[in-house]
Amino acid sequence: MSSTTNSSSNTNSSSGKPDWHARAAALKIDGRPVIGGKRVETQAGQQFDCISPIDGKSLGQVSRCQAADVDAAVRAARSAFDDGRWSERPPAARKKILQNFADKILAAKEELALLETLDMGKPIQYALGVDVPATARCIAWYGEAVDKIYDEIAPTGPNALALIRREPMGVIGAIVPWNYPMIMSAWKLGPALAAGNSVVLKPSEKSPLTALRLAELALEAGMPDGVFNVVPGYGHEAGEALALHMDVDAIGFTGSTRVGRKMLDYAGRSNLKRVYNELGGKSAFLVFPDFDDLKRAAQTVAGAMFFNQGESCNAPSRVLVHESIADEFVAMVAAEAPKYTPGDPLDPKTVMGAIVDEGQMRTVLGYIEGARAEGAQARVGGQQVRSESGGYFVEPTVFDGVTEGMTIAREEIFGPVLSVLRFKDEADAVRIANDSPFGLQASVWSSHIDRAHRVARKLRAGTVHVNQYDEDDITVPFGGYKQSGNGRDKSLHAFDKYTELKTTWLRINR
Length: 510
Description:
alpha/beta; 7-stranded mixed sheet; 5-stranded parallel sheet; 36% helix; globular
């Protein structure tokens, strides 16, 4: 794949900083899949336009992989696994290549950031400063961790020796969403590859470009052919074929709850492969009247909600605030929202970019209109903006007067839309927060540690933040309760998804 060049025409001569528009204009993409260690043509030769949400224009053609292409990728992955070119390498050897892979990612940071911004619309400052470093850090961390994990010896009697070992599962199918294409890929690739598996990655058709480039960088880092394969295409074609494949041992999926249900169905219809779903969220942000810095809470919820255009599964889209401080708090949040007015994603000063495509923008606007029809009041925002650009931009939106039964209080919108609900007391707050099919994250804001701890224990969510939101580290597991999924990404717990436990029992005769 050719991408931005290093010529002077792609650098602002006065500042020495990248001229992102010039680099975008010079970009040429290679949308072919990576199978068996090289770029290949699809068997049917079908393609689709990769549309940038920034201006609605095509970035180029991407291969539309079908079942035959997925089968070729799985066969390549299985061959690589079975002959031991990766699975039987010592952990220290795998570590060295994964760390080299991470270094390659950092060396290509400007190229990857540009691809990510053009492909899914996020501001270039965040693609460059958040997504690329987090991707490299994840790959490096799992590489470093793999030779630090010890196997076990069970405490049996003196006449037996029971060895308990983690072994790689085989071929992992990774299906990732469009909102954080690199980071979500790394969360699957890091533990799966470190453990010795082979991987077939299916990126979203809405943002496939960085996944394809990551596969090339892995090969440059020394990853053996066939260990890491990428098959771009549509979910109902390439994704379904991967999830139904009889020679895939596990699926790591991040996406909507609706598609997560399909993953479980596909497993039942095929080989009962393991399925690990990281799904949607409708995270609650609880503000109690004893908290002594409402402005900080308001700034935090606005920043977390409108980051990445609200296209985050853990976005704090339900603000639950005590009725005695609700008016004051809503006014504070509404005052913060205009700071996130969408701008040109290629401008380094922009803090909110474009919705990923026209369909998703229409979905977000439909939820906004539905909220108005149900009686909620938009305190700020609620409109499409920058339509003259040809791109897909929606204002940050804050709704007040939201009740528990309203659609915007129950369904994941995946856009910059925040709902405010009011509660009477602590029990009421916990009840409303837990009255959701989701349980990904939550946040409790209180100056009393006993209340914060008590409420945190009662909330049915995978992560509960206290007096902050979305602080993050690769060492901390990520995942949710209820219909937000199963298993955990990140941390050492992610190895549980991509390894089998084997017991070897030896009888020791006296």
